[in-house]
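Support request, please re-run this one:
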Amino acid sequence: CRTVGGAFVMSATPSFSSQRESVCVPEHAPEPPWTAPIQHGGARLEPLDPGPISALQLGLRGHEPLRTALSALGLDLPAAGAAAYAGEGRCLWAGYDHWLLVGVAAQGLDAHAEVTDQSDSWAVLALPGGDRHAVLARLIPVDFASQAVGATIRSELKHIPTLFEVAETAIRIYAPRSYRVTVHHDLATAMQSVAAQAGYRAG
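Re-run finished. Output below.
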């Protein structure tokens, strides 16, 4: 077994015959591309660790008891298309009578809403930079430049249902974790397109 660009170890794997053969296996696999920040032109794509994420579905219990329970976490229950913030925690409107609680545990909320731990269900990315609006304009029919800080938007990034949160200097993108490779690829491609067009105009 020879070493090419890094350390390898030997492991025995079954072959189609009755014998066993040794195969070279890399000791350290390369990191997937979506785990590291990338920059193209005036936009940057950064993976985020948002902490715990809980889905809150109101059901028939009413808004006020849930609003009171959230106040114990320092949070309000946001209206449609809005978000509420307190320290590391944020509550994002995500649909009709549906919110995402991000960054804090959903303590004491299960008596007032259907609470589902979705921490492993979402891939979260931040898109800062002056070209962020132009990048997203290539992918979804929303004018993010006209959105206020704290707005949340449910839309599709191409064909993938996605939640967007407008922060002060970035757009946070919440996509189904099973689509994280596709979402990252589509965003990176749009970033390259915007950067190339800007370079063409400058030239």
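Confidence is low (pLDDT under 50) at residues 1-26. The chain has three helices and 13 strands.
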